[in-house]
Write a structure and sequence with these properties.
heterotrimer; A mainly alpha; B mainly alpha; C mainly alpha; B: mainly alpha; C: mainly alpha; 73% helix; 0% strand; globular
Chain lengths: 95, 95, 323
Protein backbone atom coordinates (compact mmCIF):
# COMPACT_ATOMS: atom_id res chain seq x y z
CA UNK A 1 0.00 0.00 0.00
CA UNK A 2 1.12 3.51 -0.59
CA UNK A 3 1.69 4.91 2.87
CA UNK A 4 0.21 8.33 3.27
CA UNK A 5 2.94 9.54 5.56
CA UNK A 6 5.30 9.65 2.60
CA UNK A 7 3.39 12.42 0.90
CA UNK A 8 4.85 15.59 2.33
CA UNK A 9 3.53 18.91 0.98
CA UNK A 10 6.79 19.64 -0.80
CA UNK A 11 6.67 16.26 -2.49
CA UNK A 12 3.06 16.88 -3.48
CA UNK A 13 3.94 20.22 -5.01
CA UNK A 14 6.88 18.73 -6.89
CA UNK A 15 4.73 15.91 -8.25
CA UNK A 16 1.98 18.30 -9.25
CA UNK A 17 4.43 20.53 -11.12
CA UNK A 18 5.73 17.45 -12.90
CA UNK A 19 2.18 16.42 -13.76
CA UNK A 20 1.38 19.80 -15.27
CA UNK A 21 4.57 19.83 -17.30
CA UNK A 22 3.71 16.36 -18.59
CA UNK A 23 0.38 17.67 -19.79
CA UNK A 24 2.19 20.54 -21.43
CA UNK A 25 4.36 18.10 -23.37
CA UNK A 26 1.22 16.22 -24.40
CA UNK A 27 -0.26 19.50 -25.62
CA UNK A 28 2.84 20.30 -27.65
CA UNK A 29 2.87 16.85 -29.18
CA UNK A 30 -0.79 17.02 -30.09
CA UNK A 31 -0.16 20.21 -32.05
CA UNK A 32 1.84 18.08 -34.43
CA UNK A 33 -0.97 15.54 -34.51
CA UNK A 34 -3.33 18.30 -35.55
CA UNK A 35 -1.06 19.98 -38.10
CA UNK A 36 0.84 17.01 -39.45
CA UNK A 37 0.65 16.88 -43.17
CA UNK A 38 0.49 13.12 -43.33
CA UNK A 39 -1.98 10.70 -41.85
CA UNK A 40 0.87 9.04 -39.96
CA UNK A 41 1.42 12.19 -38.01
CA UNK A 42 -2.09 11.80 -36.69
CA UNK A 43 -1.26 8.24 -35.66
CA UNK A 44 1.56 9.62 -33.57
CA UNK A 45 -1.13 11.22 -31.40
CA UNK A 46 -2.11 7.78 -30.17
CA UNK A 47 1.49 6.85 -29.43
CA UNK A 48 1.92 10.11 -27.57
CA UNK A 49 -1.21 9.89 -25.47
CA UNK A 50 -0.45 6.23 -24.82
CA UNK A 51 3.06 6.69 -23.44
CA UNK A 52 2.39 10.07 -21.89
CA UNK A 53 -0.83 8.77 -20.42
CA UNK A 54 0.97 5.92 -18.69
CA UNK A 55 3.38 8.44 -17.17
CA UNK A 56 0.50 10.65 -16.02
CA UNK A 57 -1.27 7.65 -14.50
CA UNK A 58 1.86 6.56 -12.61
CA UNK A 59 2.17 10.00 -11.06
CA UNK A 60 -1.55 10.13 -10.31
CA UNK A 61 -1.31 6.77 -8.57
CA UNK A 62 1.12 8.27 -6.09
CA UNK A 63 -0.69 11.57 -5.73
CA UNK A 64 -4.18 10.15 -5.31
CA UNK A 65 -3.04 7.07 -3.36
CA UNK A 66 -4.92 4.76 -5.69
CA UNK A 67 -3.28 1.40 -6.39
CA UNK A 68 -5.79 0.58 -9.10
CA UNK A 69 -4.29 3.21 -11.37
CA UNK A 70 -1.38 0.86 -12.02
CA UNK A 71 -3.86 -1.55 -13.56
CA UNK A 72 -5.30 1.29 -15.60
CA UNK A 73 -1.80 2.17 -16.83
CA UNK A 74 -1.23 -1.44 -17.87
CA UNK A 75 -4.51 -1.57 -19.73
CA UNK A 76 -3.85 1.81 -21.35
CA UNK A 77 -0.50 0.63 -22.70
CA UNK A 78 -2.05 -2.54 -24.11
CA UNK A 79 -4.97 -0.77 -25.72
CA UNK A 80 -2.82 1.97 -27.28
CA UNK A 81 -1.05 -0.80 -29.19
CA UNK A 82 -4.31 -2.35 -30.32
CA UNK A 83 -5.53 1.06 -31.47
CA UNK A 84 -2.37 1.71 -33.45
CA UNK A 85 -2.53 -1.74 -35.05
CA UNK A 86 -6.14 -1.17 -36.02
CA UNK A 87 -5.29 2.17 -37.60
CA UNK A 88 -2.26 1.05 -39.58
CA UNK A 89 -3.76 -2.22 -40.71
CA UNK A 90 -7.00 -0.77 -41.94
CA UNK A 91 -7.42 -0.23 -45.64
CA UNK A 92 -8.64 3.29 -45.72
CA UNK A 93 -5.56 5.28 -44.79
CA UNK A 94 -5.17 7.80 -47.53
CA UNK A 95 -4.97 11.41 -46.54
CA UNK B 1 16.34 11.14 0.92
CA UNK B 2 14.54 8.74 -1.35
CA UNK B 3 12.02 11.49 -1.94
CA UNK B 4 14.69 13.80 -3.29
CA UNK B 5 16.11 11.09 -5.55
CA UNK B 6 12.63 10.22 -6.75
CA UNK B 7 11.82 13.83 -7.60
CA UNK B 8 15.14 14.12 -9.42
CA UNK B 9 14.33 11.01 -11.45
CA UNK B 10 10.84 12.24 -12.26
CA UNK B 11 12.07 15.61 -13.42
CA UNK B 12 14.73 13.99 -15.57
CA UNK B 13 12.02 11.93 -17.18
CA UNK B 14 10.02 15.08 -17.67
CA UNK B 15 12.93 16.68 -19.45
CA UNK B 16 13.02 13.79 -21.92
CA UNK B 17 9.27 13.94 -22.43
CA UNK B 18 9.37 17.65 -23.17
CA UNK B 19 12.30 17.34 -25.54
CA UNK B 20 10.55 14.49 -27.29
CA UNK B 21 7.47 16.61 -27.85
CA UNK B 22 9.51 19.58 -29.05
CA UNK B 23 11.31 17.22 -31.40
CA UNK B 24 7.95 16.00 -32.61
CA UNK B 25 7.10 19.57 -33.52
CA UNK B 26 10.33 20.67 -35.12
CA UNK B 27 11.66 17.62 -36.92
CA UNK B 28 11.00 17.60 -40.65
CA UNK B 29 9.80 14.12 -41.45
CA UNK B 30 7.47 11.47 -40.08
CA UNK B 31 10.36 9.04 -39.77
CA UNK B 32 12.50 11.44 -37.74
CA UNK B 33 9.48 12.36 -35.66
CA UNK B 34 8.97 8.71 -34.80
CA UNK B 35 12.48 8.66 -33.40
CA UNK B 36 11.65 11.57 -31.13
CA UNK B 37 8.38 10.00 -30.11
CA UNK B 38 9.36 6.42 -29.45
CA UNK B 39 12.81 6.88 -28.00
CA UNK B 40 12.62 10.09 -26.01
CA UNK B 41 9.21 9.35 -24.56
CA UNK B 42 10.27 5.87 -23.51
CA UNK B 43 13.37 7.09 -21.71
CA UNK B 44 11.21 9.71 -20.05
CA UNK B 45 8.81 7.01 -18.97
CA UNK B 46 11.69 4.88 -17.67
CA UNK B 47 12.89 7.72 -15.44
CA UNK B 48 9.39 8.51 -14.23
CA UNK B 49 8.78 4.83 -13.51
CA UNK B 50 12.05 4.76 -11.56
CA UNK B 51 10.95 7.75 -9.53
CA UNK B 52 7.54 6.21 -8.81
CA UNK B 53 9.18 2.93 -7.79
CA UNK B 54 11.24 4.84 -5.25
CA UNK B 55 8.12 6.45 -3.83
CA UNK B 56 6.07 3.28 -3.80
CA UNK B 57 6.65 0.95 -0.92
CA UNK B 58 4.67 -2.15 -1.88
CA UNK B 59 6.88 -4.67 -3.69
CA UNK B 60 4.04 -6.10 -5.78
CA UNK B 61 3.18 -2.67 -7.11
CA UNK B 62 6.81 -2.09 -7.95
CA UNK B 63 6.89 -5.30 -9.95
CA UNK B 64 3.76 -4.12 -11.72
CA UNK B 65 5.45 -0.84 -12.58
CA UNK B 66 8.44 -2.67 -14.07
CA UNK B 67 6.09 -4.81 -16.14
CA UNK B 68 4.29 -1.70 -17.33
CA UNK B 69 7.56 -0.09 -18.36
CA UNK B 70 8.73 -3.16 -20.30
CA UNK B 71 5.35 -3.47 -21.95
CA UNK B 72 5.25 0.18 -23.02
CA UNK B 73 8.74 -0.15 -24.47
CA UNK B 74 7.83 -3.20 -26.53
CA UNK B 75 4.52 -1.66 -27.53
CA UNK B 76 6.20 1.59 -28.61
CA UNK B 77 8.69 -0.32 -30.70
CA UNK B 78 5.97 -2.25 -32.50
CA UNK B 79 3.73 0.78 -32.88
CA UNK B 80 6.43 2.99 -34.36
CA UNK B 81 7.48 0.17 -36.68
CA UNK B 82 3.91 -0.16 -37.92
CA UNK B 83 3.49 3.57 -38.41
CA UNK B 84 6.81 3.84 -40.27
CA UNK B 85 5.93 0.88 -42.46
CA UNK B 86 2.60 2.46 -43.22
CA UNK B 87 4.29 5.75 -44.13
CA UNK B 88 6.75 3.93 -46.35
CA UNK B 89 3.98 2.13 -48.15
CA UNK B 90 2.09 5.33 -48.79
CA UNK B 91 5.17 7.21 -49.96
CA UNK B 92 6.12 4.42 -52.27
CA UNK B 93 2.72 4.45 -53.83
CA UNK B 94 3.07 8.15 -54.48
CA UNK B 95 6.30 7.88 -56.51
CA UNK C 1 -0.48 26.21 -3.74
CA UNK C 2 -1.48 22.59 -3.95
CA UNK C 3 -5.06 23.43 -4.85
CA UNK C 4 -3.86 25.86 -7.47
CA UNK C 5 -1.70 23.21 -9.11
CA UNK C 6 -4.55 20.71 -9.04
CA UNK C 7 -6.83 23.30 -10.64
CA UNK C 8 -4.29 23.98 -13.38
CA UNK C 9 -4.06 20.25 -14.01
CA UNK C 10 -7.81 19.78 -14.16
CA UNK C 11 -8.27 22.78 -16.40
CA UNK C 12 -5.57 21.55 -18.76
CA UNK C 13 -7.22 18.15 -18.95
CA UNK C 14 -10.55 19.75 -19.78
CA UNK C 15 -8.99 21.97 -22.45
CA UNK C 16 -7.16 19.00 -23.96
CA UNK C 17 -10.36 16.98 -24.02
CA UNK C 18 -12.29 19.81 -25.65
CA UNK C 19 -9.55 20.30 -28.22
CA UNK C 20 -9.57 16.62 -29.16
CA UNK C 21 -13.37 16.50 -29.27
CA UNK C 22 -13.50 19.62 -31.40
CA UNK C 23 -10.87 18.17 -33.72
CA UNK C 24 -12.80 14.92 -34.02
CA UNK C 25 -16.05 16.59 -34.93
CA UNK C 26 -14.81 19.43 -37.10
CA UNK C 27 -12.52 17.59 -39.45
CA UNK C 28 -13.63 16.46 -42.87
CA UNK C 29 -11.19 13.58 -43.13
CA UNK C 30 -12.58 10.37 -41.68
CA UNK C 31 -9.23 8.82 -40.77
CA UNK C 32 -8.23 11.93 -38.90
CA UNK C 33 -11.53 11.88 -37.06
CA UNK C 34 -11.16 8.25 -36.00
CA UNK C 35 -7.55 8.81 -34.89
CA UNK C 36 -8.51 11.77 -32.76
CA UNK C 37 -11.45 9.81 -31.41
CA UNK C 38 -9.17 7.01 -30.21
CA UNK C 39 -6.80 9.56 -28.66
CA UNK C 40 -9.78 11.20 -26.97
CA UNK C 41 -10.82 7.83 -25.59
CA UNK C 42 -7.40 7.37 -24.03
CA UNK C 43 -7.52 10.87 -22.57
CA UNK C 44 -10.96 10.20 -21.14
CA UNK C 45 -9.53 7.16 -19.38
CA UNK C 46 -6.93 9.44 -17.76
CA UNK C 47 -9.66 11.87 -16.74
CA UNK C 48 -11.66 9.11 -15.11
CA UNK C 49 -8.51 8.10 -13.25
CA UNK C 50 -8.07 11.71 -12.08
CA UNK C 51 -11.67 11.67 -10.83
CA UNK C 52 -10.79 8.61 -8.73
CA UNK C 53 -12.97 6.25 -10.76
CA UNK C 54 -10.62 3.43 -11.79
CA UNK C 55 -13.44 1.12 -12.88
CA UNK C 56 -14.62 3.70 -15.37
CA UNK C 57 -11.04 4.37 -16.43
CA UNK C 58 -10.53 0.69 -17.19
CA UNK C 59 -13.79 0.44 -19.10
CA UNK C 60 -13.10 3.61 -21.05
CA UNK C 61 -9.58 2.54 -21.99
CA UNK C 62 -10.68 -0.85 -23.24
CA UNK C 63 -14.05 -0.08 -24.79
CA UNK C 64 -13.76 3.57 -25.73
CA UNK C 65 -10.25 3.48 -27.12
CA UNK C 66 -9.77 -0.07 -28.32
CA UNK C 67 -13.09 -1.55 -29.33
CA UNK C 68 -14.83 1.62 -30.48
CA UNK C 69 -11.82 2.65 -32.54
CA UNK C 70 -11.68 -0.70 -34.27
CA UNK C 71 -15.44 -0.67 -34.87
CA UNK C 72 -15.27 2.79 -36.40
CA UNK C 73 -12.45 1.73 -38.70
CA UNK C 74 -14.41 -1.28 -39.79
CA UNK C 75 -17.41 0.94 -40.45
CA UNK C 76 -15.64 3.46 -42.67
CA UNK C 77 -14.20 0.90 -45.04
CA UNK C 78 -16.65 1.71 -47.79
CA UNK C 79 -17.04 5.31 -46.78
CA UNK C 80 -15.61 8.16 -48.89
CA UNK C 81 -12.39 9.59 -47.55
CA UNK C 82 -13.77 13.02 -46.88
CA UNK C 83 -17.06 13.85 -45.34
CA UNK C 84 -19.11 16.14 -47.49
CA UNK C 85 -21.59 18.31 -45.69
CA UNK C 86 -24.74 18.75 -47.66
CA UNK C 87 -25.61 22.31 -48.50
CA UNK C 88 -27.80 24.00 -45.94
CA UNK C 89 -29.85 27.14 -46.39
CA UNK C 90 -28.84 30.00 -44.08
CA UNK C 91 -32.15 29.72 -42.24
CA UNK C 92 -31.59 26.07 -41.44
CA UNK C 93 -28.03 26.75 -40.40
CA UNK C 94 -29.18 29.57 -38.16
CA UNK C 95 -31.77 27.33 -36.54
CA UNK C 96 -29.17 24.61 -35.93
CA UNK C 97 -26.78 27.12 -34.41
CA UNK C 98 -29.46 28.55 -32.14
CA UNK C 99 -30.58 25.12 -31.00
CA UNK C 100 -27.02 24.04 -30.28
CA UNK C 101 -26.32 27.20 -28.34
CA UNK C 102 -29.46 26.73 -26.28
CA UNK C 103 -28.43 23.14 -25.54
CA UNK C 104 -24.96 24.24 -24.43
CA UNK C 105 -26.41 26.89 -22.14
CA UNK C 106 -28.90 24.44 -20.67
CA UNK C 107 -26.25 21.81 -19.96
CA UNK C 108 -23.83 24.35 -18.50
CA UNK C 109 -26.54 25.58 -16.18
CA UNK C 110 -27.39 22.02 -15.18
CA UNK C 111 -23.76 21.18 -14.41
CA UNK C 112 -23.22 24.38 -12.44
CA UNK C 113 -26.46 23.80 -10.56
CA UNK C 114 -25.51 20.22 -9.78
CA UNK C 115 -22.07 21.19 -8.55
CA UNK C 116 -23.45 23.82 -6.20
CA UNK C 117 -26.12 21.66 -4.60
CA UNK C 118 -24.21 20.36 -1.64
CA UNK C 119 -26.99 18.57 0.20
CA UNK C 120 -28.16 16.09 -2.33
CA UNK C 121 -28.67 12.50 -1.27
CA UNK C 122 -25.45 10.61 -1.80
CA UNK C 123 -25.85 6.88 -1.98
CA UNK C 124 -22.16 6.08 -1.95
CA UNK C 125 -21.96 5.92 1.84
CA UNK C 126 -24.84 3.47 2.02
CA UNK C 127 -23.30 1.34 -0.70
CA UNK C 128 -19.96 1.20 1.08
CA UNK C 129 -21.74 0.32 4.31
CA UNK C 130 -23.69 -2.49 2.68
CA UNK C 131 -20.87 -3.82 0.55
CA UNK C 132 -19.70 -6.56 2.95
CA UNK C 133 -23.17 -8.09 2.81
CA UNK C 134 -23.08 -8.25 -0.96
CA UNK C 135 -20.33 -10.84 -1.20
CA UNK C 136 -17.75 -8.59 -2.83
CA UNK C 137 -15.77 -5.75 -1.34
CA UNK C 138 -15.55 -3.55 -4.41
CA UNK C 139 -18.58 -1.22 -4.15
CA UNK C 140 -18.89 -0.82 -7.91
CA UNK C 141 -19.11 -4.57 -8.45
CA UNK C 142 -21.51 -4.83 -5.53
CA UNK C 143 -23.85 -2.33 -7.18
CA UNK C 144 -23.53 -3.85 -10.64
CA UNK C 145 -23.84 -7.49 -9.73
CA UNK C 146 -25.90 -7.51 -6.58
CA UNK C 147 -27.86 -4.40 -5.68
CA UNK C 148 -28.76 -3.58 -9.29
CA UNK C 149 -28.18 -6.97 -10.84
CA UNK C 150 -31.38 -6.76 -12.86
CA UNK C 151 -30.03 -3.72 -14.69
CA UNK C 152 -26.87 -5.62 -15.60
CA UNK C 153 -28.92 -8.52 -16.87
CA UNK C 154 -30.84 -6.18 -19.14
CA UNK C 155 -27.58 -4.60 -20.31
CA UNK C 156 -26.34 -8.01 -21.36
CA UNK C 157 -29.57 -8.54 -23.26
CA UNK C 158 -29.11 -5.19 -25.00
CA UNK C 159 -25.58 -6.16 -26.07
CA UNK C 160 -26.84 -9.46 -27.41
CA UNK C 161 -29.63 -7.78 -29.36
CA UNK C 162 -27.21 -5.28 -30.85
CA UNK C 163 -24.83 -8.01 -31.95
CA UNK C 164 -27.63 -10.05 -33.48
CA UNK C 165 -28.67 -6.99 -35.44
CA UNK C 166 -25.11 -6.46 -36.67
CA UNK C 167 -24.90 -10.07 -37.71
CA UNK C 168 -28.04 -9.91 -39.77
CA UNK C 169 -27.14 -6.64 -41.44
CA UNK C 170 -23.53 -7.10 -42.40
CA UNK C 171 -21.79 -9.26 -44.82
CA UNK C 172 -18.40 -10.38 -43.68
CA UNK C 173 -15.74 -8.06 -45.00
CA UNK C 174 -12.25 -9.42 -45.48
CA UNK C 175 -9.27 -7.15 -45.26
CA UNK C 176 -6.42 -7.43 -47.69
CA UNK C 177 -3.77 -5.33 -46.01
CA UNK C 178 -0.49 -7.20 -45.91
CA UNK C 179 0.48 -7.71 -42.33
CA UNK C 180 3.97 -7.17 -41.04
CA UNK C 181 5.92 -10.18 -39.74
CA UNK C 182 6.88 -8.06 -36.77
CA UNK C 183 3.22 -7.61 -35.96
CA UNK C 184 2.59 -11.31 -36.25
CA UNK C 185 5.52 -12.00 -33.98
CA UNK C 186 4.18 -9.49 -31.49
CA UNK C 187 0.79 -11.17 -31.30
CA UNK C 188 2.52 -14.33 -30.13
CA UNK C 189 3.09 -12.72 -26.78
CA UNK C 190 0.60 -9.86 -26.82
CA UNK C 191 -2.54 -11.95 -27.27
CA UNK C 192 -1.73 -14.29 -24.36
CA UNK C 193 -0.90 -11.21 -22.30
CA UNK C 194 -4.29 -9.74 -23.16
CA UNK C 195 -6.02 -12.97 -22.21
CA UNK C 196 -4.17 -13.18 -18.90
CA UNK C 197 -4.90 -9.52 -18.14
CA UNK C 198 -8.53 -10.13 -18.93
CA UNK C 199 -8.64 -13.01 -16.48
CA UNK C 200 -6.87 -10.84 -13.91
CA UNK C 201 -9.42 -8.04 -14.35
CA UNK C 202 -12.25 -10.53 -13.96
CA UNK C 203 -10.82 -12.01 -10.79
CA UNK C 204 -9.74 -8.78 -9.19
CA UNK C 205 -13.13 -7.18 -9.83
CA UNK C 206 -14.36 -8.62 -6.57
CA UNK C 207 -12.15 -6.47 -4.39
CA UNK C 208 -10.56 -3.89 -6.66
CA UNK C 209 -11.53 -2.06 -9.85
CA UNK C 210 -12.21 -4.50 -12.61
CA UNK C 211 -15.09 -6.68 -13.57
CA UNK C 212 -16.86 -8.54 -16.32
CA UNK C 213 -17.25 -5.73 -18.86
CA UNK C 214 -13.62 -4.73 -18.78
CA UNK C 215 -12.45 -8.34 -18.95
CA UNK C 216 -14.81 -9.20 -21.78
CA UNK C 217 -13.80 -6.17 -23.79
CA UNK C 218 -10.12 -7.09 -23.36
CA UNK C 219 -10.77 -10.57 -24.71
CA UNK C 220 -12.57 -9.02 -27.67
CA UNK C 221 -9.58 -6.73 -28.22
CA UNK C 222 -7.35 -9.81 -28.30
CA UNK C 223 -9.62 -11.34 -30.93
CA UNK C 224 -9.58 -8.13 -32.98
CA UNK C 225 -5.80 -8.05 -32.77
CA UNK C 226 -5.61 -11.62 -34.05
CA UNK C 227 -7.86 -10.74 -36.94
CA UNK C 228 -5.77 -7.68 -37.78
CA UNK C 229 -2.46 -9.50 -37.60
CA UNK C 230 -3.53 -12.52 -39.65
CA UNK C 231 -6.02 -11.09 -42.12
CA UNK C 232 -5.68 -13.86 -44.67
CA UNK C 233 -6.41 -16.53 -42.12
CA UNK C 234 -10.14 -16.34 -42.07
CA UNK C 235 -11.14 -17.20 -38.58
CA UNK C 236 -13.12 -20.36 -38.59
CA UNK C 237 -15.64 -20.42 -35.81
CA UNK C 238 -17.45 -23.46 -34.75
CA UNK C 239 -21.06 -22.61 -35.28
CA UNK C 240 -22.36 -24.03 -32.07
CA UNK C 241 -19.53 -22.68 -29.94
CA UNK C 242 -20.24 -19.13 -31.05
CA UNK C 243 -23.93 -19.38 -30.36
CA UNK C 244 -23.26 -21.03 -27.03
CA UNK C 245 -20.82 -18.34 -25.94
CA UNK C 246 -23.13 -15.54 -27.00
CA UNK C 247 -25.94 -16.58 -24.73
CA UNK C 248 -24.14 -18.27 -21.86
CA UNK C 249 -23.91 -15.01 -19.91
CA UNK C 250 -27.58 -14.20 -19.97
CA UNK C 251 -28.47 -17.83 -19.50
CA UNK C 252 -26.40 -18.18 -16.35
CA UNK C 253 -27.73 -14.92 -15.01
CA UNK C 254 -31.34 -15.94 -15.52
CA UNK C 255 -30.80 -19.43 -14.14
CA UNK C 256 -29.21 -18.05 -11.00
CA UNK C 257 -32.01 -15.52 -10.72
CA UNK C 258 -34.70 -18.16 -10.98
CA UNK C 259 -32.88 -20.37 -8.50
CA UNK C 260 -32.80 -17.45 -6.06
CA UNK C 261 -36.46 -16.90 -6.81
CA UNK C 262 -37.22 -20.45 -5.76
CA UNK C 263 -35.06 -20.17 -2.66
CA UNK C 264 -35.77 -16.66 -1.46
CA UNK C 265 -39.00 -15.63 -3.18
CA UNK C 266 -37.29 -12.72 -4.92
CA UNK C 267 -35.66 -12.83 -8.35
CA UNK C 268 -31.89 -12.37 -8.10
CA UNK C 269 -31.83 -12.03 -4.31
CA UNK C 270 -28.49 -13.46 -3.25
CA UNK C 271 -27.85 -15.08 0.11
CA UNK C 272 -24.94 -13.25 1.71
CA UNK C 273 -23.05 -16.54 2.11
CA UNK C 274 -23.41 -17.58 -1.50
CA UNK C 275 -23.25 -14.13 -3.04
CA UNK C 276 -19.52 -14.02 -3.68
CA UNK C 277 -19.42 -17.38 -5.49
CA UNK C 278 -22.55 -16.68 -7.48
CA UNK C 279 -21.29 -13.29 -8.55
CA UNK C 280 -18.02 -14.83 -9.72
CA UNK C 281 -19.84 -17.47 -11.76
CA UNK C 282 -22.13 -14.91 -13.34
CA UNK C 283 -19.22 -12.58 -14.10
CA UNK C 284 -17.18 -15.34 -15.73
CA UNK C 285 -20.00 -16.34 -18.05
CA UNK C 286 -20.79 -12.71 -18.75
CA UNK C 287 -17.17 -12.10 -19.70
CA UNK C 288 -17.31 -14.86 -22.29
CA UNK C 289 -20.55 -13.52 -23.70
CA UNK C 290 -19.39 -9.91 -23.87
CA UNK C 291 -16.11 -10.94 -25.48
CA UNK C 292 -17.88 -13.01 -28.12
CA UNK C 293 -20.43 -10.28 -28.76
CA UNK C 294 -17.91 -7.47 -29.18
CA UNK C 295 -15.60 -9.60 -31.30
CA UNK C 296 -18.47 -10.58 -33.57
CA UNK C 297 -19.58 -6.97 -33.81
CA UNK C 298 -16.15 -6.09 -35.17
CA UNK C 299 -15.72 -9.11 -37.42
CA UNK C 300 -19.14 -8.40 -38.76
CA UNK C 301 -21.41 -10.49 -40.80
CA UNK C 302 -21.73 -14.13 -40.35
CA UNK C 303 -18.52 -15.93 -39.46
CA UNK C 304 -17.31 -18.53 -41.89
CA UNK C 305 -19.25 -21.68 -41.62
CA UNK C 306 -22.40 -19.94 -40.50
CA UNK C 307 -24.15 -20.23 -43.85
CA UNK C 308 -22.78 -23.64 -44.62
CA UNK C 309 -23.79 -24.91 -41.23
CA UNK C 310 -27.23 -23.43 -41.57
CA UNK C 311 -27.61 -24.85 -45.04
CA UNK C 312 -26.56 -28.29 -43.86
CA UNK C 313 -28.96 -28.15 -40.96
CA UNK C 314 -31.92 -27.02 -42.96
CA UNK C 315 -31.25 -28.83 -46.20
CA UNK C 316 -34.41 -30.70 -45.75
CA UNK C 317 -36.60 -27.75 -44.89
CA UNK C 318 -35.50 -25.40 -47.68
CA UNK C 319 -35.10 -22.60 -45.19
CA UNK C 320 -32.53 -20.25 -46.73
CA UNK C 321 -31.52 -17.13 -44.93
CA UNK C 322 -30.31 -13.97 -46.62
CA UNK C 323 -27.01 -15.85 -47.18
Amino acid sequence: MISGSDLTPILTIALLVALNLLLLSLFIGLIRAWLGPGVEDRFSAILLVGTGGVAVLLLLAILLQLEALYDVALVLALLAVVGTVALTQSEKSHD
Amino acid sequence: MTNILAVLAIFSGLFFFLSGSIGLLRLPDIFTRLHALAKADNIGLAFIALGVIMLESDILNNIKIVIIWLLVMAASAISSHLVARHALREHRSDD
Amino acid sequence: MIELLWSVFDLSLVLLLLALAWGTCSTRDVMRAVTLFIAMGLLLAIIWARLKAPDLALAEAVIGAGISGALFLSAIKDYPSTITVSHRTPVLQGLINAFTLALVILMSWAVWHGLNMSDGIRLSDQVVAQAPVSGVSNPVTAVLLNFRAYDTLLELAVVLTAVLTVLTLNDRRYSHVVSSPLLQGMTHWLVPLLVVTSGYLLWVGAHAPGGAFQAGAMLAAAMILLQLAFPSRRQQFSLYLVRFLLVIGIFTFVVVGIWMLLLNDVFLAFDPDWAGTLILIIETMATLSIATALALAYLGGRPMGWEEGARNNSASTENEGAG
